[in-house]
Specification:
The chain has 359 residues and is α+β, with helices and mostly antiparallel strands. It has helices spanning 55-59, 115-131, 149-154, 230-242, 295-299, 302-305, 308-321, and strands at 2-8, 25-27, 42-48, 66-68, 76-77, 81-82, 96-98, 104-106, 136-142, 158-162, 166-172, 186-194, 200-206, 221-223, 246-261, 264-275, 287-294, 329-334, 341-346. It has seven helices and 19 strands.
Length: 359
Amino acid sequence: MSLVVSVGDCNLLMMVGLGRNSISTFMGGIGISRRPSSSCRGIVLKASYSTASNSSQNNGSVGQKNLFLGAEASRINGINGIYLTSSSRQSRVLDTYEDEYEGVVINPERLPFDTSTFSSSLQASLSHWRSKGKKGVWLKLPLERSELVPIAVKEGFEYHHAEREYIMLTYWIPEGPSMLPANASHQVGVGGFVINDKNEVLVVQEKHCAPAFKGLWKLPTGFIVESEEIFAGAIREVKEETGITTEFVEVIAFRHAHRVAFEKSDLFFICMLRPLTTQIVVDDFEIHAAKWMPLVDFIEQPGIQEDNMFKKIIDICIARLGKRYCGLSAHHVISKFDGNSSSLYYNVVEAQDFNCQVD
């Protein structure tokens, strides 16, 4: 006798050799092994025993271990394997791991294949998690599983955030307002103040800008990307727009504005950078022109003089050049809180630091 049962995102498949006997119960020395299925996600169970068993073994019990595959095993969960009774609520609980705040994160790689199974499993899971005193539920649905979004929303899940590859939904189980953290509230921009030994500032004219800024020579700016340091983002943006290689000196100042894009707030860091090269190579995609401009000419532009924020930023940069102001240097530290290395920006000046010393 041989049995192969494939369980996962496909139908139950049984291959049995038992002569003319009815196939309802398999008993005896059964060996079960797990291996990945090539045709669907889930598990494959293989069972076999010798065909030399006597007739009583074929028609009745041959040992103390029985494996029933009939009406009682009709409920199969595509992510948690085979369960022998359809009445077991826990048997349909979605595959998860716990977070640090008494919540659960649903495993996006072990979601049921079909929508009906997902719907019933989600309902049973919410009931199970509620009985266990769980709080927040995080459901990350890959782009290719977007058909599951309406089902989750119908069960009470709410949109949290979306990226190119997925959408994140959440569910708060306890009574009262949700205590789950909201989506990111800020975007972070950087600007590079690069000045050479001729007292010239590296400036650009953008191809795409508001009419009021048409023809304005400005500092190279941009947004930092995911998992990028502020100083690294400033160095990268200057390099991409102008071809100039620089090194970070200090954060001179930063601006905090609100309702800038998609109702989000904005942090904009002005970084002083030291040029390591001089040859400009313009990024034709977003930059119209770039050049080294005398600092005096840069300051006298109407667009600078008429804007209080731009004027103040330049005043601070000039004060830094005159050693009448100290910015924030980046220092790498490791926090015991998370064990990770991060950058702490501060301006404590050592006695031997003559580069930034207030007169």
